[in-house]
Amino acid sequence: MADTPDDYLWDGTGDADVVVQRLETVLVRYRSADPPPPLRLPDLTPAPAGWTWRTVAAVAALLLLSIGVSWLTYDRRPAVVAEPWRIASLLGSPTIDRAPAVSRTRLDAGRWLETDRHSSAILDVGRIGRLNVAPQTRLRLIESSEGEHRVALERGSIEAQIWAPPGRFFVETASATAIDLGCAYTLTVDDAGTGTLSVTAGWVGLEHRGRESFIPADASARTYPKLGPGVPTFDDASAALRAAVRALDTARGAEAQQAAVDVVVREARSQDAVTLWHLIDRVDRSLTGRVIDRLQVLAPAPPGVTRDGVLSGNRAMRDKWWEALGLGSAAWWRTWRQK
Amino acid sequence: MPHLLADHRVARGDLTSPADDAALVIAARAGDRSAFDELYRRYVRMVHGVLLGRSTRDDVDDLVQDVFLTAWRRLSTLREPAAIGGWLHAIARHALVDHVRQHRDHVALPDDPPDKSGGYATSASDGYATSACGFPRASGGGWRPSGPDTDRLEADRALAVIRQLPEAYRETLLLRLVEGMNGPEIAARTGLTPDSVRVNLCRGMKLLRSRLDG
Asked: ipTM score of the complex?
């Protein structure tokens, strides 16, 4: 099989590959130390035994005071189950609902955060991540609960780093919803509502009315009002391929798409299989066969996946082919849907 | 030549199961530092390999500490204890993104630039030419076993080329070629499927060969 490494590359058995072996030999200088250096964790042990009665009394007094304050200020709202969003740091004068925001200000659901051309902010996304809000950005927190954080980006640019499991962080825009699949990414929305997503690490899913795209690290995709997400391209793909894919994002009909499909088929490298896979159901049906054939050359379909099956829209076959691309399980990246 | 991977595997211990990891996570959550130390020992190579993808060797050790410190502080947010590998993998990637952003203007490679006397050969006549990014490039595509200077030259160049590969290939190759992990171990430690690791290893190695020969 074309994408199966030999035994030596896979597990070190079998006949040694001289290039791999040479690389192992010279690169060992960069290997982590064995044994590794000691882990320096902060001392989280309980209070030391040598406390004086004065310390104990002071702590007890503080505890009583805090209990008293809590009792007096308790407003009988439901308990907050999720860590709230807060401004971790800011530059200039961002506002929350037009009022000046300061560091540690809490951003509640329904509130708008806005930055002008001279201001920016870094938000703590509960306990699950961080959001850098660029100048000239306007966003609204829709929901912040333990299982889901959802924000609307009206315009501007955000840089998200999320360390929660997939499907916990959503960014809604006029043209698509970005679903975090364990990643870091930048999302920009212009005044017309067109979005540009660039993924730095992990994955992001884009969805709009059933149309979905999956963008891996080092790749980007556009989103378009009324159309939804476009097709991802790797940032190091040829400029011609990227331009052709952008044209295909909005072109309709075989005549309008023909030239761009020619370019994509000609320019695609094996790593651009992810782009071709997305194009299968984005191009006119009369052109789908060409996309499938090129994908077959670059990343042969696994057993059980046929050209006719994929051409006829067999979702299971398409998913199986996806899994053969080595980009993770289709079941995994669709998990967010079932949440 | 003996198989380096097999030697390394023996030296560093066999692969453990996610269930073992889950028990350690649960113990660590309860404040058992030795359990977390064991998790550190199990995952430090994976984290180190991921971080090596875009940071200098000097920075990597500090970043590794940062990653595990972050994990220690946020351990209560990990819902599936058995998923600790994928979780640490994600934290390491985020740490790297942060690091790269903070050092955007910092040219980091190679880690140990050779001095002038033993430095990079720039003449095509000795088998190497300097690439556009300042690293030696093999002319003729061969790997020439020789002395320590050549080894270091090749290592620097190989690392520089690997660092230019797409993330999935870059990480997998660093874990395989630098950290000495085998395919099943990479899958278990990163949370990726074995099939994904297989494909990434195969395609990444093809790409690496072509770029080293280019």
From this structure: 0.77
